[in-house]
Amino acid sequence: MVDGPNRLERGLGAALEGAIQRSVRRTGRLVRPAEAAWLVGPVGTSTIGPGFAAAYAREAGLAVAADAPGLGLLPDAGLLRGPGFDPDRLHPAVRGFYERTADHRLEVWAQWRGPLAPFAHTLVYLVSRSIEQLNLPRAPLETSRGISSELTRLNDPRTGDPVCTAWLRRARATGRVVFAGFYGVAEPPLAAGPCVRVVFPLPGGSATVLLRPEHRPGGGLCLVSAGRGFGDAGYYRVHRVGADVLRVRRLPLDETIAVSVDGDGVLRTDHAFRFGPFRFLDLHYKIAPAAPRSAP
Questions:
Q1: How far apart are CA 139 and CA 70, in angstroms?
Q2: Which one of 85, 183, 203, 260 is CB 3.0 to 4.6 Å from 73, fit for a cystine?
Q3: pTM attached to this predicted model
Q4: Domain count, the chain
Q5: Residues 6+ positions from 8 with CB-CB distance below 8 Å
């Protein structure tokens, strides 16, 4: 059962989200989509939720391959090859997760910390629940039964080439949406090579995260959003103000996603969030092969 917001909470959430949008419109950098393809992605409406991938595919004229076995966040980790990153060095289990994400199941634990935790909790409670997006778990029991994964590959209908993969994650205990993101690869102008790009649609725009791949011991992978400034890896709040105009603000919100195989052969991920100098949230994932699907 989903713990949806009441009317007052929806009103407060809408007011807070509106204030964030106005701030981006006033202070964000003016960007033309044609000049910054690395920032362009799905733009959300008032609610994101589980039906957004199909709606975006219809709007963009893309072909859909929904929840098929073997779908991955990336069609090929080789797309990340660059001057400082060799995907052939990845542990097979790490590479396999990104290329065949649908064949895995995830368990997640959340730990909030530091002085920013109460403010982040308020944002999640009032805004994220209402729009059904970036609805981070506020307590460990919210994800005690794990999270489900639904992947949708969106392809160019003319060539059949993959454009992006939509990944919808829900808390199994409640059914509520945790994340609805669109995954692909992009190369920002200041980056040393390709980055993983994740677009989280939001009302009137998106949160677009560019993550630089780095090697870790034992074939591990670390995706890092810290960069040198606008045009590098980072967290960008994007707001559409016209058909061909965006306002974009790069926020000091940094993420590190470390994926590795532990000493017992278990695939694990540690996902840390910082705003400026303050670390405020850790998500820990245990990843295992999914049970085989029953024949129809």
A1: 31
A2: 183
A3: 0.91
A4: 1
A5: none
Quickly list DSSP for 64-123. Answer: EEES-TT--SSS-GGGG-BTTB-GGGS-HHHHHHHHSGGGEEEEEEEEE-STTHHHHHHH
- Helix, coil or strand: residue 155: strand
Read off φ and ψ for residue 261, nearest 5 degrees. -105, 125
> Is residue 116 situated within a structural domain?
yes
User: Each residue's pLDDT tens digit in the chain (296 positions)?
Assistant: 445 677 777 777 778 777 888 888 888 999 999 999 999 999 988 788 888 888 999 999 999 987 677 899 999 999 999 999 999 999 999 999 999 999 999 998 989 999 988 888 788 877 777 788 878 877 766 777 778 889 999 999 999 999 999 999 988 877 888 888 999 999 999 999 999 999 999 988 999 999 999 999 999 999 999 999 999 999 999 999 887 899 999 999 999 999 999 999 999 999 999 999 999 999 999 999 987 655 44
| Amino acid in position 158 | R
Q: Which domain holds residue 88?
A: 7-289
Residue 124 resides in a domain: yes
Whether residue 92 is contained in a domain is answered as yes
Separation of alpha carbons 258 and 213, rounded Å: 10
CA distance 210 to 195: 6
Burial class (CB in 10 A: 0-12, 13-18, 19+), 83: exposed
CA angle 124, 118, 129 (to 5 degrees): 10
DSSP 8-class letter at 126: I
Distances (CA, A) of 15 to 1, 44, 130: 26, 17, 11
Q: Are 74 and 247 in contact (CB under 8 A)?
A: no
